[in-house]
Amino acid sequence: MHKLTSLLLLFLLLFFSPRVTAQTNGDLGKGFFNNWSVSLSGGPNIFFGDIKEYKVLPALTPINELRYAGTFSINRQLSHVFMLRGQFFFGQLAGEKLKYKDGASCNQYFESDIFEINLNTTINFSNLFGKYNPKRFFFVYGTIGAGAADWITKKKDITTNEIIATDGSWSQINPHLVIPAGLGAYFTIKNKVNLGLEWTMRQLIIDRLDATVGGWPYDSYSMLAINLTYNFDKYTSNKLTTASPQKQIGPPPPQPLLAAEIAAEKAAEKQKAQAAKAQQAEFLKLPPPLPVQDTLKPAQQVLVPDTVASEENIADTLPVPAHLKGVSYRVQVFAFKEDTYSAEQIREKFKLSQEVFKENSGGWYRYTIGSFTDLNAAKKLMASLRTSKEIPDAFIAKYVNGKRATPAPPHTVKHLKYSKGKIYYHKPVHKK
Question: Fewer CB within 10 Å of terminal CB in the chain, N or C?
Fold first, then answer.
């Protein structure tokens, strides 16, 4: 009983082992009903037990111990390594024994009809231990399973041919546990057909097949069979079909271009490139204060470092409101060397809600917003512009009686520098 339990556990472990991905002769189907096949096999069937003349080879005289059996299997490919088979086995067995071990005369033989149903799994060793090879046409496998077998046996006397003993009956089925295990090899002869050779030893857990008890603890029989398998829904991934000369399969191959067509295509591509350059030149806009946002490049702009102009050369083009007399503060958002942009364009560019003042001082056109007598209020506006309006270089300029003062406070002055036509700002340095 312990041996039977061990064999059943081994079978379950093999059956429920994780699937190992490797390639046989095509891709596996994705659905449950794909990867099915049927097999037919047949070959010599040899008995091993008490009534047998030789240990391994079958005797041919006076009774021929070489008999035959066949199987029919329905198979389900679980992976490229494991396949599950439901198998029906039917065949005949025979054995003879002329003398016992002590030399006494025996002169007995038996003949048996045996049938079996089993469930087994095959393990493709070529795919389990070999490398990926989609063109493999030969592979070796092992098999093990479990099933039920029954038989009808008649033991007779060789000289008189009289029946000595029997076991089994057609009228009453008495199944016995059988463990089939063996080795095999397959050759792929077509996409859907495999030809194989398989040897299996089928071990019974009983000593009654030859109608004789004693000597051998368990009877067994062995079959060497040629196997023919037909595969359903196998995919061909390695062979290409040849197109019929009468009918084109798929889109027609591309035709070579003439020299005139090639020249026309090149001319069209050149025109597209020129048009793209012209279109870019038409969309010149304001240069942003940061180089990463500066997309406006007016022609022939010359930028020089911003210097703090003296009050004598200040020419403010905007009138000074009467209520701003004295010291006031504005926030500068932009400065440019040429008189290219209006105050309204600057306001739209930076999406400002306040009015923008434009002035010319020190050779620069400067654009400011707000007018505060309180320096903290100007600082608050400057901080808001740096964060919400994304003008990180906004800074505070001091005005006296509506005109730019000289010099501006060190902590509020920002100096400009020029580099290849773009304006860059230094962040203000605040003294602690």
Answer: C
pTM over 0.90: no
Residues 221 and 298 in one domain: no
Q: In which residue are the tokens 């962040």 written?
A: 427
Residue 290 CB neighbours (<10 A): 15
Q: What single-letter DSSP state applies at residue 277?
A: H
Residue 422's pLDDT is: 39
How far is the C-alpha of 333 from the C-alpha of 388, rounded, in Å? 13
Does 323 share its domain with 216? no
Q: Count CA atoms closer than 13 A to 361's CA, side-chain side.
A: 26
Domain count, the chain: 2
Q: What is the DSSP letter of 18?
A: P
Hey, what are 214's tokens? Answer: 């004693």
CATH number for 179: 2.40.160.20
3 state SS of 313: helix
- Among 118-132, 146-160, 243-257, 281-295, name the most confident range: 146-160
122: enclosing H helix or E strand: strand 105-124
Kindly state whether residue 281 falls inside one of the protein's structural domains.
no
| pLDDT per position as a tens digit, 66-104 | 999 999 999 998 888 899 999 999 999 999 999 988 888
Residue with tokens 């399969």: 249
The pair of structure tokens assigned to 223 is: 């079959």
- Both 156 and 27 in one domain: the answer is yes
The reply to whether 89 and 206 lie within a common domain is yes
Whether residue 89 is found in the same domain as residue 189? yes
At residue 374's C-alpha, the angle toward residues 370 and 375, to 5°, is 85
The yes-or-no verdict on residue 219 having pLDDT over 50 is yes
> What are the strands, taking DSSP E only, across 158-296?
163-167, 176-188, 193-204, 220-231
Same-domain check for residues 132 and 34: yes
Range of the domain at 413: 291-425
Q: Which amino acid is at 55?
A: K
- Which two structure tokens, joined as six digits, stand for 325? 């007399």
Question: Is residue 152 assigned to a domain?
Answer: yes
In angstroms, rounded to a whole number, what is the distance separating the alpha carbons of residues 235 and 239? 10
290, 422 in Cβ contact below 8 A?
A: no
Question: 240 in a domain, yes or no?
Answer: no
Contacts of 120 (CB under 8 A, 6+ apart): 84, 85, 87, 143, 144, 145, 146, 147, 180
Q: Do 214 and 207 form a contact (C-beta atoms < 8 A)?
A: yes
Residues 216 and 325 in one domain: no
pLDDT of residue 312: 38
The answer on 295 and 165 residing in a single domain is no
Domain with residue 388: its CATH number is: 3.30.70.1070
